[in-house]
Amino acid sequence: MREAKAIMEEHGWNSAIIVTQDFHLWRALREARCMGIEATGAGVKETALIRPPLVVREAVANGISIIRCWWEKL
């Protein structure tokens, strides 16, 4: 997301549409908004990967993302 923000700033863009797996969309949008990007998203429901491990991984990643966003605003 940081690389995307740098490209957006270079071109003077301030909004984005994020397309990712549906289970990842909530975190991606939150991280973009935390960085000041006006973002909307579209979640893709189909995946070739097995869901249960991804759900656990995403739960941990969401917690880390929330803490990082909070910490960077201090």
Keywords:
single chain; 74 residues; alpha+beta; 2 strands; 61% helix; flat
Instruction: Count up the helices.
Output: 3
* Low-pLDDT segments, ≥5 res: none
Order of helices and strands: HEHEH
The Cα radius of gyration reads 13 Å
Q: Spatial order of the strands in the main sheet?
A: 1-2
State the secondary-structure class.
Answer: alpha+beta
Helix content: 55-70%
The average pLDDT score comes to: 86
- Characterize the overall form: flat
Overview of the molecule:
It is a single chain. With about 70 residues, the chain is of the alpha+beta class. It has one domain. It is built from three helices and two strands; from the N terminus they run H-E-H-E-H. It has a two-stranded parallel sheet. Helix 2 (about 20-35) packs parallel to helix 3 (about 50-70).
